Amino acid sequence: MGSDLPKGEYVPEGHTIHRLAQENTRRFAGRTVALSSPQGRFADGAALLDGTELVGAEAHGKHLFLEFPGERWIHVHLGLAGVFRFGEIADPADGPGPVVGVVRLRIAGDDSWADLRGPNTCEIVTRTEKDALHARLGPDPLRPDADPDQAWERIARSAKPIAELLMDQKVLAGVGNVYRAEALFRAGLDPHREGRLVKRATWDAIWADLVDLMAEGVRVNRIDTVRPEHTPEAMGRPPRQDDHGGEVYVYRRTGMPCLVCDTEVRIEELAGRNLFWCPKCQPKARKRRAAAAPAAGGAATASGTPARSRRTSTAAAAAHTPAPAPRVRRGAVR
Question: What would you measure as the largest C-alpha separation in the chain, in angstroms?
């Protein structure tokens, strides 16, 4: 298994890092491992932990932690170029075989090996340093200890666009450009809406959706976000052809027709990253009209709108508003 990353500027999203944590745990947890740094840049760290037991692995957002005895962890952030490769060892006497490429860290057990190439970060951290990293990160929808209220507290008081907030790892950990675009589309939310103007029920629905979508991403090792009625089979359309794989609504579909309404998908740069959305399925909030004189026979409300008309419009809006999603307190990898 490898964390095969698509071509182009792409930082692996949280589901990829959780898969790497699971794979390292499956292959090495509870076993004595040999650590080396063929490249040499992590030679001191590898020598310090060489010949000890790999206790386990976990992920928080885009950060991977490999645990060793004595409350020491190897902290890995893949960045743009990082990749893990795994392999089998047929004969322990032969070892993992020759090194291919520039390998920062090699982990070798009795029957498996793993090579880490090109990470942004590969370092040993203590309990205090690890706790500080967790404290800087927002809740991760794939962690069972995640609390969406922590993200909501930041979102509800921010004037930044919700699309920018969802990419801020201090607000929400593990969500990248693909999940950001797709979660906002599925919620029918204008990506430019200020965080403080987003309704709590909408945030709860987005969180619950991310928990499900990202858990499925861990399971199948790709990002699929289209609902059953919009799959290639259901719509009679060709499968998506893209380096990133997966069936999506708007991500990297600039100029193509929306799968729901046929409007052209748009793109713009927001906070240094490409943002994709459908202007019809994710409309801007309507501005309130100026107060008008009450119509004959209708009592005016404080806003100047006849009470009867206001009741009618409220009822119509309610008929088109989805029921609030149940409050989801925790995230989990299923």
Answer: 94
Give yes or no: residues 117 and 158 share one domain. Answer: no
Half-sphere exposure of 272 (CA within 13 A, CB side): 5
As annotated, the active-site residues are 12-13, 62, 273
**This prediction's pTM:** 0.83
The residue type of 183 is A
Domain, as residue range, for 186: 148-277
Give just the sign of the alpha carbon dihedral 230, 189, 267, 162.
Answer: negative
Q: Per-residue pLDDT for 237 more than 80? A: yes
Whether residue 75 is contained in a domain is answered as yes
| Residue 308 CA: distances (Å) to CA of 246, 293, 316, 318 | 49, 14, 13, 16
Strand partners of residue 123 = 75
> Is 170 found in the same domain as 87?
no
Query: 251-265: per-residue pLDDT in tens?
Result: 999 999 999 999 999
Handedness of CA 307, 313, 315, 318 (dihedral sign): negative
- The whole-number average pLDDT for the span 7-21 is 81
Task: Assign residue 56 the CATH number of its domain.
Answer: 3.20.190.10
Dump the DSSP string for 283-302. Answer: PPPPPPPPP-PPPTT--B-T
114: left (phi over 0), alpha (psi -120 to 50) or beta: beta
Measured distance CA(176)–CA(250) in Å, rounded: 14
